[in-house]
Design goal:
Blueprint: H1 3-16, H2 50-63, H3 67-82, E1 87-89, E2 103-107, H4 114-121, H5 123-166, H6 170-178, E3 193-194, H7 199-207, E4 213-217, H8 221-228, H9 233-244, E5 247-253, E6 257-264, E7 266-272, H10 274-286, E8 299-301, H11 318-332, E9 346-349, H12 351-368, H13 375-382, H14 384-398, E10 404-405, H15 407-432, H16 434-444, H17 455-459, H18 469-481, E11 485-490, E12 497-502
Parallel strand pairs: 1-9, 2-7, 2-8, 3-4, 4-7, 9-10
Antiparallel strand pairs: 5-6, 11-12
Helix pairs in contact: 2-3, 2-4, 2-11, 3-4, 5-6, 5-11, 10-15, 12-13, 12-15, 13-15, 14-15, 16-18
Amino acid sequence: MSNLSAAESWLDEQANHHLSDGCTNSIQPPTPLPESLSDVARFDPQMLPESLRGYVMDTAQRLQCPPEYCAVTALVLLAGLIGHKVRLRPKQHDDWEIVIVLWAALVGGPSAMKSPALKAMRFALDAIEADARRQFEAASAHYEIEQELAELAKASAKSKAKSLATKGDMDGARAALEVVDEVAPPPSPQRLTINDATVEKAGELMNASDGHLTILRDELAGWLSKMQQEEYASDRAFYLEAFNGDGRFTYDRIGRGTIAIERCALNIVGGIQPSKLAPIVRSATKGTTNDGLIQRFQLAVWPDAVRDWQWIDRTPDPSAKERFAQTFYRLHHLDLGVNEEGSPPSWRFTPDAQALFVEWATEINRECRADDIPPLLAEHLLKMPKTVGSLALLFAVIEGDQDAVGITATARALEWADLLRSHAERLYSAELNRDIEGAKLIIKRRHKLPHPFKAKQLQQRGWSGLETTEATQAALALLVEHGYLTEVETRTTGRPSISFWWHSDYLPTREAD
């Protein structure tokens, strides 16, 4: 029997579901495909300080979005308010310092309520910036009046100086001119957030800010895509440096001249869809642009979507909202002074908190160096000690600790480490398991393919994640392995031809469009 007739016979057997000798046919049903996304840890509201907890959970319930979106956004915004006011030295004798800098990505579909969560968490920060603008406008109006008076004083002084000079009293003329003081313009209103600034402008704003700027983007995809392009390599280097928070960055530009940023630090938070994130992670996996940019998004969260939607219409909890806002105002006005060298104070862990941090850091460093986990995930986790230190210091400041980070703040930060690790594993597993997603897409759209079909016909469809030969072959191999497809080779003249035939339970209901 030829290969073609064998395939036709198999298809007939599948289509007819015939019974032989009183028994069902020997063709086994396909085995379910594995999940492409790993599970993530459940978010516990107790992981947040009490002053934040109520409003975060209240907002998440009203928006019907995962609370992780609200929680990480709030933490990033608060980190920007602390800025360089205090640092952490995670070792008792070493001079290694951590400056609080946090990058967060809210990963989810287009209707996951990422943008509303961002907006709801920033209201206090918007109020602080609005108040700064009002003060600047009032100071500018006063400056204009003072400037007019100064001009009148200058005119009077010039007239007096001219009269004295005419009489030969040059010293008197000089003294008359020196009496008039210049009026200093008011400082620009303090900026806490930016949306779309050039690195040059961002640098100028950094130098003018007491805290850290925070980049807020409803969609991070555009920013990340730009960072992938070769012409923005210098911008990418700038942002990589800004994650460290304690570096100096200098750039030279025609027109702007030389600008030295003494404290290059930027927080980032924004939303992104999984499909837009996938090629960026894939590029890092292949090593094409793996300089640690994506791994710096330590607060990347990809929670399960909220499925049980219901109509909710109520006012925000006023007391919870007020406690939340007061936390922002307090950190904005926080002044911890400077040390003897004129630098911001550096806190250390208390002895019990130090022991807890050392135990965790030792475990994660040994695990990542044992080559038992994917390289990209290992690189992500090796950046986590800085994140845990930043969170511990942030929680300590919010809770009112003095001069040291205690065990409560440290334990809370380590709970976040467990949660964030599970989200990182999901983030990178999605790329490692993209053949599963491809296979699921083929099953979903099988009616758009001829039956039987060839790999080339599938690839020509240009479906997301199946654009390359490699991706197509991987997805088809998985479907064959799990019994959804049978691979049949037909040989006539020249090269053999491979066709794929569906299991009878998955026969297309109509021909391809």
